[in-house]
Amino acid sequence: MQSATFTVASTVLEQAYKAIRTTPPEPKDLEQSAKLQTFMDEKFPTESAENITRRSLILAELRSIFRQWVKQVCMQKGVPEEMATDAGGQILVSGSYRLGVNEPGADIDTICVAPRHVTREDFFSSLKDIFLKHPKVSNLVAIEGAIVPLLTFDYEEINIDLQIAILPRNSIPENLNILDDHVLVGVDPATEKSLNGPRVTELMIKLTPNRESFISVLRIVRRWAKRRGLYSNKMGYLGGVNWCILVCFINQLYPTAAPSTLLLRFFMVLTNWKWPLAIQLCKTHDANLGLEVWNANAGHNRQVPSYQVMPILTPAYPSMNSSFNVSNHTLAVMKEEFKRALTMVQDVLSKGGSDWSSLFDPTDFFAVHQHYLAVEVYTEKQDEEPAWCSFCESRIRKLVESLAYNPALCRLRAFTKKFPLNFVTAGDASAGGQPNGDASTQPSKFGVCFYVGFDIDRRQLHSREVSIDNSVEYFKHNDLYRWNKRTPTMDVRITPIVWKSLPEEVFEDLGGRAIARVTRREFMKKKKEEDKLAAAPSPPPSGDEGMNDCLSQEMDGDKDVGGNDKAASLASDMANGKGSISQPGSPDPATEGSEVIKDTSSLHSTPLKAKKEAATVSPEMSGKRDRDGNAVVGTGSPEGKPLGTSNGVGNTSTNGAAAPGITSPPVKVVKKPLEMAAAPPAVASPRKRRKMKITFAKLN
């Protein structure tokens, strides 16, 4: 099957991955999709026609204000009135609003395109003043130091994110084609990134083979990601652009699939995707304009640092990684969520596809962690709150990375939702974290609170206390206090909190603290059982059956499967039946904690000294026997395996004595992680388990 090609402006784009299945959907798929659509309309209704019209009118007013401002700036700089009138100016729209998947109350991403006479300083001075004086504008914040500078404000209670792109031309025509790569000639980096938003959005619309299914599934995935705490590019997860590219990518692999089937394939592919293999909609191309293009093979390329673990490439030139904030910790969280969602979708479809509530259950973040950190970002001036809180939110992921250097901490996760301030003193936190209720003695502060959850890995403990002072202090002084816009009134308080001391508002999505407590007990019980199983000796593997399951049974009749140009790509694995996607319930080699090693030649070359020692061992030396009466080696067999049985590793004769010179047949060895092989069981006896204390003495 040939890869699809698309002509955009003067550039021919080739689809990066060939379609896997192009057969029409079956009646059952269409029926399940209709039920899914009905569920979404009832539970998560779209914006009303009245509000859609209202947004259109707001954009029209913004265009008028912007064009008048451009004319005013040009005339102030000596441009003749006629040329100033012709200077024009456009306001482009990108993101969810442009795609038609915006939810009620969602913001609008807008980009002002201005001619050369306008500067970014004009944007943050005179245009900012115009909006400050406008009666319909409120909560205006200027974010000048961001990678993409912008003004954010509420216009008739609709949030607007306004960026500016300055082109090196005297006028901006109405029919400006932003998909033409040459529109980027001579622009600065901020303009390049601002134009990237609408360029990517327009390209996704063109590269999507099935617009209706794409919109339906994108709407579902966005809602699912928000409910599960995965919708935040700042926090190291994925944002709107990332989810759009992923859904469009799956739509390319299954261009004729019904929405319910496309949703199933979405979670199936992402569950088994071999990161850091990049996901891209079209093959990258270089327009020779001097802009750096993402290239996985170029180690010197600054766009491909070693820590980019989940590359999702933008289709527009210059192609870049839209998910560079993702870390190993957030990727692990998303992998687990993809697995859970896949199980849920399979279960719902097996029952007819009527009730999809389980897929959208809120995250159990506040029920499954042993300890939490309250990161309270505050300032004493209300007008400083939005900028300071926005900056700190973009740095929370750095706190997680700093904490990860402590080997005693595991399952680190930052929560994406903001909560009100709930000050806790450092002294109380070390003893259990009781809130300080005397608010009258504290000065008035404005800010928000974020939460980070983590567990304690008892196998890495050397004492009853775990100190996180160094990690927190490093985060504060290297990632927060160096911000050039920070004032003395801006600060952050980081406090360890135990579960019972969490405020009530964090349990609202779960239905209250009582329901969260039940969820927590069930999780802890399940975790103890899993730890006991992990600590128990592993039985010898019975074979490779089930390890190479793929879509041959899941996708009966898939004959029109195309190969992939990349050796490690998912499309090739699925086409050739190499087990890139496992059946429900079968083990996944990419995610299992053990690895089967088939090459056991090193096990048969026993040192001469070891052979001699094995030859001198006899049942009489140990005097031990197992339940069946077989002699057990006391010395020389650390595992205490019975001699003369096929389960013991070594050379033995049938009467229990070692037989030197006889090699044992090849065996399969399970390679366990080093810490699991060398450490004691993860679950200690209740008598040995002691309450751990998180020390936090130096800070706050």
Automatic annotation (TrEMBL):
GO molecular function per UniProt: ATP binding; metal ion binding; poly(A) RNA polymerase activity; RNA binding
Transmembrane segments: 235-254
GO cellular component: nucleus
InterPro entries, sorted: NT_sf, NuclTrfase_I-like_C, PolA_pol_cen_dom, PolA_pol_NTPase, PolA_pol_RNA-bd_dom
GO biological process: mRNA processing; RNA 3'-end processing
Alphabetized UniProt keyword annotations: ATP-binding, Magnesium, Membrane, Metal-binding, mRNA processing, Nucleotide-binding, Nucleus, Transferase, Transmembrane, Transmembrane helix
UniProt EC number: 2.7.7.19
Domain Poly(A) polymerase RNA-binding residue range list: 364-510
Domain spans labelled Poly(A) polymerase nucleotidyltransferase: 18-207
Poly(A) polymerase central domain span: 214-361
Name of protein: polynucleotide adenylyltransferase
Organism name: Phytophthora kernoviae
